[in-house]
Amino acid sequence: MQNFSRFRLSLLAGSTLLALAATPALAQQQAADPATQTAAPDDDQTGLTDIVVTAQRRETNLQETPISISVLSTEALQDRHVQSLFNLADGTVPSLRVATFEARQSALTIGIRGIVPYDQNQTARDAGVGVYIDGVALGKTQGLNAALFDIERIEVLKGPQGTLFGRNTEGGALSLVTRAPTGEFGARMTAGLGNYGSRNAEAHIDLPAFANIALKFDGVYQHQDPTVKDPLEGSTGWNYYDRKGGRAAARWTPFDGLTADFSYDYAKDENTPQYSQLINYNPKGYAVGSYTPASGTIGTTLYLPGTTTACGGTIAAGSTKPVCVAPRAPLVGVHPDRQTVADVGVPQQPSVDITHGFTSNLKYKVSPNIELRSITAWRGVSTDQWDNSGGPERSTYAPNANFSRYSLSFLDQHQFSQEFQAVGSFDQFDFVLGAYYYTEHATEYAATPLSNLWNADGTAYTIRSPIVSGTVTSANSGYQPYNASCVNTLAATVPQFANSCQFITRASKAWDHNYSAFGNLTFSPEGTGLHFTAGGRFTKDKRHGNLYVVNNVVQGFSFENSVNRFDPMFNIAYDATPDMHFYAKYSTGFRAGGANDRSQSFNAFGPESVKSYEIGAKMDFLDHRARLNLAGYIMNRSNTQFDFDLFDTSATSPTNGSHIEQTQNAGDTKIRGIEADLTLKPTRELTLTGSYAYTYWKAPSAVNPLTGGLPQQLYIVYTPTNAASGAIDYVLPVPVAGGANLRIHLDANYASSQYSFQLEPTKTDPSFVVNGRIALADIEMKNGSTVTLSIWSRNLLDHTYIYRRSDANSSPVLNYGANGALVSTNYGGILGDYANFNPPRTFGGEVSVKF
Length: 851
Known about the structure:
Elements: H1 4-21, E1 52-53, E2 60-61, E3 69-73, H2 74-79, E4 96-101, E5 104-112, E6 129-133, E7 136-137, E8 151-158, E9 172-178, E10 186-194, E11 199-206, E12 213-224, E13 241-252, E14 258-271, E15 276-278, E16 287-288, E17 324-325, E18 351-367, E19 370-387, E20 402-405, E21 407-426, E22 429-447, E23 450-454, E24 461-463, E25 470-471, E26 479-481, E27 486-487, E28 500-502, E29 506-523, E30 530-550, E31 553-577, E32 580-591, E33 594-596, E34 603-605, E35 608-621, E36 626-647, E37 659-680, E38 686-698, E39 701-702, E40 712-713, E41 722-734, E42 740-751, E43 767-780, E44 786-794, E45 802-806, E46 813-816, E47 822-826, E48 834-837, E49 842-850
Parallel strand pairs: 6-9, 16-17, 25-27
Antiparallel strand pairs: 1-2, 3-8, 4-5, 6-7, 8-9, 10-11, 10-49, 11-12, 12-13, 13-14, 14-18, 15-48, 18-19, 19-21, 20-23, 21-22, 22-29, 23-24, 26-28, 29-30, 30-31, 31-32, 32-35, 33-34, 35-36, 36-37, 37-38, 38-41, 39-40, 41-42, 42-43, 43-44, 44-49, 45-48, 46-47
């Protein structure tokens, strides 16, 4: 581990060494789409082109923008066959980490530079990295895995963006920019087939402008069959998706200076979670117990083998506690490698995520140097979640016991935002001024029934009826709409659940209101090459909510919090030459506070904040055939939000399947890192690109408020110490009638092992994923259209690795009272580690036609 003070002193030296030692294998593709870049600086077009970004709320050259940014162009997304944001989980941008929340695809965990939330998948919680579509912030992580529409580029803004983008961007921002209408007729259509029954189709149509109005329509369809099969007839397997959506955009230019963009999008994503499988059994080597004592009667009490001494029974104070492991059901296997068929069938249907929104983006040039802007947006997301990811793999076995936690949830969120901006220049000054308002309302109710029932010896099982006769309780775990004999105590007091026979684990609702004013001012003294930027954002954030059902009982838990905050930013940039730029930056950001609706009391917590110190260099050399960008940073995070949980997996426990979670501001976190991006274009045909990211962090220790005991070390999830990505792109003209190009792309992405749970010291596997694509592109046809034929593969080498791993069921924490009696058991049984594997190799072919 590096010493912090030495790190401060050696940061600049380390960046210099990287500049000398960087290789194409340790580099990040910034962009490679000529259609979205300006002309190369040399006449023969063999040099690297300029890349335009909007990270500072104005169009600027990437190399002259004094912050760390990675850009993925349309071409880069096509080459990697990126259809949704989850496809970026392979490490395409090393500083950007993408993973599923739990095992489900319907919500994504997104982090940058070690700012990675654990569980923001709730009504009153936020992420630490903001996701934006055409400048509009998305309030919830649910629905983020929907199909991508016609994306022009994705900008990954690294480090706190609290000044121009606001709250919840303490790690950075992910900005998606769509293609605008052109006003000229054009059409692009793509159709493809692949393994696992995959198929995809896209249509993008631009219509000729009329009455100064240009229209554009996009349609997307994506499908993949399960990669892990469910043995239960009629149920859907795991890692399945079926996505479809459409988008309509209009650009109105009634007179010179005014541009009005309007768009509406709607997307539906049906999906099932990744499979959670058992990768070992009893790794601690405890004695395997028995449910059959000497009398021969099978019961639910676990005994030490060959005895009638119960494991977990009352003992005298100071005595040694007998510990044994529940036997593994005969149907449950141990699978250290990726499964293709589950051991036990469970009821599962696809979750359904629906996202929709309307955006109005107005720009008016008051003068050649000043532009006024307005961004108005209404957005919403609803998720109907059916997540049965583990079967018997995540709970212990007991005779005639219920098992397989079916995580059901319905969430509905609506948001409105309004932003005004004034962007301009005068003399030696550039400025951005703005005001912002955001409000949202989110509701959710959830249930976690157990869907299966073992027989007496674990050799068979039955599916439990979802229809309940009589009163719904946690024991019978009813989870479907009512029948005539149903009795529900919620119906009389909560109209939402009238005529319902559903056992509600929790139901909550929350409101959020955010007001802010911001500005950036850059002074560039003439003839010096220096640029001094100062910025700030004042934010008032108010949130309140209610947790009104807990375990099927009406409750009155509520919370309310507010914060007034100012986030400054200072940046000094120096243009040493037209091709060499250096900068030093100080900035802050924060993640809003909220409340945890899994806490059973809606426990509230405050905001966390980050102070960041960054230096960087952006350099073109070798006559614009080489580009090297470097950044080194130090981030100090205060009042870090950590989640403490208690998940009962004991088959004999009355609270089996219960998940209790509490969030608190546990302390300070230190994060340091170095990033290097390199692009080489030695010839007109060949481009080598890539990136490397080193991240060091130190998290605090804290006492688990749910279990007590001694302080335990906390961990930052999905943050590898070393991550790298590299790519080779080769374009060769093909001598056919009309002309065509042979395009060959190969990329490789690596990440070292990392933690996936904030309370567990267990690490995932290192990852190494190779993707490839070969295309015969732009074949000119007689009617003026062009055709592209391509074959692609994701995870070309079929590398298998664990991206999420838990040993919670392998290491119980036993707590005793003064009389020696067992008071509580954290993770009530012992089975083994369970894990989620990365998707297997997929491949296919596509045909694209452009008119």
